[in-house]
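Section 3.1: Structural characterization of target chains.
Under the original work plan, the team committed to producing a structural model for every single-chain target entering the pipeline before any wet-lab resources were allocated. The record below documents one such target. The sequence was received from the expression subgroup and is listed exactly as submitted; it comprises 406 residues.
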Amino acid sequence: MIADRSLSDAELRREAREIFSRIQRDERELPDGDTGWISYDLTNHDSREGTLIMRGGGGLYAGHLGIALYFAGMYDVFGEESYRESVRSAVDVLVEEEVEDLSTGADVGIGTGVGSFVYGFSALADLTGEQRYQQRALEFAGTITDEQVQADDSYDLLLGTAGTLTGLLRLYEQSGEESVLDRAIACGQHLLDERLSKWGYGVWDTHQNEDVRSFSTGMGHGAAGIAASLYRLYAHTGREAFREAADEAVDFENVFYSEYRTNWRANWQRLPEFPTWWCYGVPGIGLSRIGSLQYHDREVLRRDLDRARAFDPELGSRDSICHGTFSQVEFLIELGRRFDDRYLDRARRLASHAIERKRERGDYLVAGGTVDGLYNPSLFLGTAGIGYTILRLLSPEDLPSILRFE
């Protein structure tokens, strides 16, 4: 169930500004002497307690780069120079430090690794109009080696090769640099080479630190995210092998679809069986099918999208865009862009319900909550992502979908 009442544009603008102000107030000196934010990550999926991890510095998922994208969204919507200045402050250390120092030892995903720097700086260039950020993205793309790609054994969107592939393709679409496409093709080839056979489908073991193989479903760590990246690569290369691999991944994922639950089962033992999150479950898989259809028209993809839009949105136990209420809001926004305004109305009502709950409780339900007086400000797990989604309710066609990595 979602609320009947929708907040007005003025109320949504006020909420976006309040989130920004709170994030600004929580900036402080970090242990390394720099100023910035502390964000928290729930790593224990077996309980709500989890483990709290401090993450200052870079990264799209839980670092400064993700917060900067929210600030850039504020600049794009409100046009106030102070917001663009906040972007500069948030990423100063990432601009000034040598790219090799930032990329050495990092994973290759779009959440925390080199892919996050490529995508994040490319997106910042569009939102702020500052081309130096595109140049920074190109510099990070130039650090990606064949050896680094071939060493990856995560493969997925958030932590693995599919994430770097997606970031590179976003940058290629922006810059037209053929060297960037060449790097993307190397990523795609690695994904082709590393498939394993499961029930006759070529898929990836994306949780190799587990005792058993895990051929996951879902956008963040599974088949949906990898398939979307390969369809995007196919559109730019015309290579049938990439399309065929994406088709197989989608067909494998559909083995886990439940007509009764109108959702795809998360086939990883540490998760709820049918989550309604971005990383696993119908919102993320629905977003992946929207993105895939942008690059390849296939009846199965259209059928899956029809399945996904039959889901019943509801207020979640958390609010984040990764595994909370606002992942559903983002999916509804994208359905509204593709189909009609009824979905945008539902998106606004669901977001309004979450905002009203926050006003009653005093804070949003995000990973880590409020710890030692600090509030999780990160993009995927905290308030920056919530704020960005609120901005998209105000301007759905102008602000790119971060959860589709536009």
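Confidence is low (pLDDT under 50) at residues 42-54.
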